[in-house]
Here is the input.
Amino acid sequence: MTEVPTIETERLILRPLTMDDWPEYAELMSSPRAIYMGGPHATTAAWGMFCHDAALWTLTGQGALMLQELDTGRCLGQVGINSGPLFPEHELGWFVYAHAEGKGYGYEAASALRDWAFNVRGLQTIVSYIAPGNIRSRKLAERLGGELDAQAPRPDPADLVYRHPHPVVGK
Here is the structure.
């Protein structure tokens, strides 16, 4: 069984999901903001996604972590490495709650988990599957150094695939 890591950045703690995270997660997944994650979702589907995010750690050695603001303890969103039969490759995904948008939290969290996945977990390649209309996520993938890979397999034929470079150690 893989121990779920806790990763600290300059402003965040990336930590395992808890039941306290469920209400805000469910609210996001049932809202129009979930459109780029296949939603809005019914509560039962959102619960399945929440459990999936936690179960991936046991099943695959990676999964989702919640973004918690270091100073306030407030939950700001989620970042994760998805894998398994629904994902052709290991996928770096993220979301931030509306109150946390535009402050660089997504970049800070995604960078930290990407680096962990490459340097600690030993993954050789990581992609992000992003709906073409999700401009904010596309810009974040590009800021992370991701480049479009038109030849990569994808779970949804409409998705764009951004391939993330291995981070430079010591940068």
